[in-house]
Please model this.
Amino acid sequence: MTRLPLCRAAELATDAPPPRWLIDSLWAERAVGILGGEPKCGKSLLALEIAVAVAAGVPCLRRFPVEHAGRVLLFAAEDSHPIVRQRLEGICAAAGISLNALDLYVITAAALRLDLTGDQERLEETVKQARPRLLVLDPFVRLHRIDENASGEVAAILSSLRRLERTYATAVLLVHHVRKGASHLRAGQALRGSSELHAWGDSNLYLRRRGTLLRLSIEHRAAAAPDDLHLALPGGDDHLSLELVDPTTASTSETPAPDAQQRIHSALEAADQPLSLQQLRTSARLRTSTLCTLLNALVADGTVRKSAAGYRLVR
Model:
């Protein structure tokens, strides 16, 4: 029987190779990982920001350069195709690019179950033919019917995604939720389900809401991570796109009262037709800037829909 290879510790290599990036400091090249966060905190919007940046070769969030642009495959299991397109168009408008020019493809299958061998094989064949630089799957909870706390079942799905990365040199970004009431935990520990999910990631991103801002934490397996960043949805803009902000200079006067979002929800719920911005401002008794900030967030997470007639709740 052949023994395992050995090497004296003093003979180990001393120079680690520098990290290779898909998006500088944000996502490692060919990394698999989690984009995690609380419900309705902009996870899907950030996933689309990343997808657009890689497909177009433009800096993600107008700050992080894309080192290796290329084709992106996206499966959005929760949002309708018109909503996905609307969000992509908003992100493209903020980046000054055209959606028509993007090498970005949406998987339009009605469902994708990564716990089923047949669906795993269909996904692999799709990746094999398309050869994407990045595969985005959003969200994990809609991609299976397993027990997320059963490490063996979770590990089997994650192993299939790791195989895609190793076989076809594609990065994999998996959107996932954190547990309720876990805000006191470290971001990775707060992920819902098995600890396999946190351990799997080469690059992981975590979003948490902080008033009207979103705090983005970054971690990498083989590189130092930058300090936490803060994101916001600019108010009063027809196009939704996250932007980096400095929390030390953000105006505290624009921070809404804790019940401001509920007042918007109550006003829309009581209306028998869509409400204009002015009607909502009067009903909810909010400043226009505060109202626009919250409406943009509610539209982004799918709670509210905007049309030519005004705003209404998505029931």
